[in-house]
């Protein structure tokens, strides 16, 4: 069957030329229509409080989608809670880990991510079993991710923070599409709700990504024609391309399967297991090498940007230091110049003053000699009289005179 028009149940990429679907459009001339089959609605904080989950009590967070990141940080804001800088973040892919940069300083936090599948993240989580894990997710009772965590016997808490609701798809003429690509059980439910007779549209091929989506199709009795991810087609775009090119489908890579000591083995297949085509392996390896090269280029670009910023900061600091030194030097020169001007002014004043004989120093009077203190007068000697009689007589005469 020729496929010329496909309905993709996802939002349209910002740049189709850089998306995995570019080969379908550029090389195979397929017309793609993008439309998300459901909308994600956040659970209110008042309802989340009923779960009695306190985010600050956990030491590690598991993210499996960008929706889980958005609603986790939304819930933090509504609850007015904060997380420690020592919090560990485990993401299913590198793209989801890089999306964390919208909310945290990526380089200063402990961020871990899987290579491509959730099973890769299981192996990383196995090295941190002592952590207390919180898993922000939708309100679905069980998903392939929770099944994988339960099977690996991890101690974690499921934190429903958002729910998915089917959207109205009646604006589409479903019979005008050759294929429909689905990515989740809610996408399947939305398709069935809008087109209850979808099973009767035998001319439409159904492509599905993930075993939970495969199971949802089987539950509704809808035939699955194109499966993903597989070893030769790890993405939906590659699975569609391989089908259009007539390549055989190989084993499905799933998060279900037998678990080893540190993770799980992807052993479940869809339908009859066929031997992978060599060419597909080569294409897969080539694309994996391209992805590794792109990842290395992104790391190199980040390192170069970091080095550039550090060099700019260093140059800025050196310029500031140099400017401060120049300012100090200029201030010292101004001070020296001012001091020289003051000195020259003083010298000019001294030179301009009239010359005069130097004043003689005043003579200091000699200290006065102490005055000689006169010796106390000696008592006068009374001349001795020969007799005392005349004296008495004289005295008597005097008395007599008085009486007279």
Provide the CATH architecture of the largest domain.
Answer: 3-Layer(aba) Sandwich
Tell me the domain tally.
Answer: 3
Choose one word for the global shape.
Answer: elongated
Largest sheet, spatial ordering of strands: 3-8-7-4-5-6
Please report the distance between the alpha carbons of the first and last residues: 195 Å
Could you name the CATH class of the largest domain?
A: Alpha Beta
Alpha carbon gyration radius: 53 Å
Helix content bin: 40-55%
CATH overall fold name of the largest domain:
Rossmann fold
Order of helices and strands: EHEEHEHEHEHEHEEHEHEHEEHH
Structural class: alpha/beta
Total beta-strand segments: 13
Task: Offer a quick outline of the entry.
The chain has 404 residues and is of the alpha/beta class.
Q: What descriptors fit this protein?
A:
3 domains, five-stranded parallel sheet, 11 helices, 404 residues, Rossmann fold, alpha/beta, six-stranded mixed sheet, 40% helix, 13 strands, disordered C terminus, elongated
List the helices and strands and how they pair.
Elements: E1 5-8, H1 22-26, E2 31-34, E3 38-42, H2 45-48, E4 60-63, H3 66-79, E5 88-91, H4 94-99, E6 110-113, H5 118-125, E7 133-138, H6 144-151, E8 156-166, E9 179-182, H7 185-194, E10 205-209, H8 211-219, E11 226-228, H9 236-244, E12 258-259, E13 264-265, H10 278-352, H11 389-403
Parallel strand pairs: 1-2, 1-9, 4-5, 4-7, 5-6, 7-8, 9-10, 10-11
Antiparallel strand pairs: 3-8, 12-13
Helix pairs in contact: 7-8
């Amino acid at each position: 069957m020729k496929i010329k028009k496909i309905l993709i149940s996802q939002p349209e990429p910002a740049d189709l030329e850089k998306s995995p679907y570019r080969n379908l459009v550029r090389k195979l001339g397929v017309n793609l229509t993008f439309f998300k089959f459901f909308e994600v609605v956040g659970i209110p904080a008042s309802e989340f409080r009923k779960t009695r989950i306190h985010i600050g009590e956990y030491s590690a967070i598991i993210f499996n989608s960008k929706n889980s990141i958005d609603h986790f940080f939304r819930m933090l804001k509504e609850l007015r809670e904060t997380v420690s800088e020592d919090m560990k973040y485990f993401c299913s892919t590198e793209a989801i880990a890089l999306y964390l940069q919208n909310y945290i300083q990526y380089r200063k936090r402990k961020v871990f991510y899987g290579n491509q599948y959730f099973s890769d993240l299981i192996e990383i989580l196995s090295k941190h079993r002592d952590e207390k894990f919180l898993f922000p997710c939708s309100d679905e009772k069980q998903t392939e991710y929770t099944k994988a965590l339960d099977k690996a016997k991890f101690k974690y808490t499921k934190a429903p923070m958002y729910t998915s609701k089917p959207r109205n798809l009646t604006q589409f003429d479903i019979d005008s599409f050759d294929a429909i690509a689905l990515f989740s059980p809610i996408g399947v439910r939305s398709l069935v709700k809008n087109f209850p007779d979808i099973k009767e549209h035998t001319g439409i091929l159904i492509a599905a990504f993930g075993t939970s989506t495969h199971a949802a199709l089987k539950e509704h009795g809808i035939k699955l024609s194109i499966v993903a991810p597989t070893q030769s087609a790890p993405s939906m775009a590659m699975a569609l391309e391989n089908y259009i090119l007539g390549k055989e489908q190989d084993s499905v890579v799933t998060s279900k399967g037998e678990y080893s000591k540190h993770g799980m083995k992807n052993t479940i297949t869809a339908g009859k297991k066929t031997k992978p085509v060599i060419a597909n392996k080569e294409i897969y390896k080539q694309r994996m090498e391209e992805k590794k090269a792109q990842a290395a280029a992104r790391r190199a670009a980040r390192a170069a940007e970091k080095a550039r910023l550090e060099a700019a900061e260093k140059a800025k600091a050196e310029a500031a230091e140099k400017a401060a030194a120049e300012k100090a030097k200029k201030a010292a020169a101004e001070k020296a110049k001012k001091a020289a001007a003051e000195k020259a002014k003083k010298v000019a004043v001294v030179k301009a003053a009239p010359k005069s004989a130097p004043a003689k120093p005043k003579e200091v009077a000699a200290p006065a000699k102490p005055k000689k203190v006169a010796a106390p007068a000696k008592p006068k000697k009374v001349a001795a009289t020969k007799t005392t009689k005349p004296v008495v007589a004289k005295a008597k005469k005097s008395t007599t005179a008085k009486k007279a």
